[in-house]
Design brief:
Largest sheet: 5 strands, antiparallel
Shape: elongated
Strand content: 25-35%
Strand order of the largest sheet: 4-3-2-1-5
Number of helices: 4
Radius of gyration: 18 Å
């Protein structure tokens, strides 16, 4: 997909308004697309800055690929791990917004809407910024070490595409349950 898929600027505005897309390698929240095909946006890391940026829709700085989602952490001192996904899943859709973004706290069964798109946790999730496996083990409180993997507070191992825990973290490292052993190759590749 690219900007040529829009019939006119009004179509682009309807499609992109209130969405998060990638601009210049950073997640950005789109406010509007005007009649001159100018996108008004703000980067997610500029939560306190109300200044909007503008860019022509045909700019090479805009990525028309879907934003990447997965596990992330929200909550500051009360850090909690969440699974963040798009519902319904549409791999070709470029943006995510509050209507199609779902979050579920590890250990809970219900998905909820994300209340604040301008969060450091969502930005880190999209960009793939996490501590290393070694750092997660050393801090002993659990955390996210990859888009697809997280360690819960009681050393439970979770995978993004699985319901519930898939294994445990022991002194020797992560051990998958027998029914989730098919994830071993992915786990080995994703631990850095």
């Amino acid at each position: 997909m690219d900007h040529r898929n829009f019939a006119d600027a009004g179509h682009a505005h309807m499609y992109l308004r209130d969405c998060i897309i990638m601009i210049d390698g950073e997640p950005a929240y789109v406010f509007s697309v005007d009649g001159q095909w100018t996108i008004a946006f703000r980067y997610l890391h500029e939560e306190e800055d109300n200044r909007a940026h503008e860019l022509q829709i045909d700019s090479k700085k805009i990525s028309w690929e879907p934003v990447s989602l997965g596990f992330t952490e929200f909550g500051g001192n009360e850090r909690r791990i969440y699974k963040v996904c798009r519902a319904p899943r549409r791999m070709w859709k470029v943006g995510v917004n509050q209507r199609n973004l779902r979050v579920r706290q590890i250990g809970r069964n219900n998905f909820n809407a994300l209340q604040n798109l301008f969060s450091g946790g969502l930005r880190k999730c999209i960009l793939g910024v996490w501590p290393s496996w070694k750092d997660i083990i050393e801090q002993q409180g659990g955390g996210v070490f990859h888009r697809h993997w997280a360690v819960g507070r009681k050393s439970s191992l979770y995978h993004m595409n699985s319901i519930g825990m898939v294994g445990n973290v022991l002194k020797d490292g992560p051990v998958l349950d027998e029914k989730h052993s098919y994830l071993q190759q992915s786990l080995d590749k994703d631990i850095r």
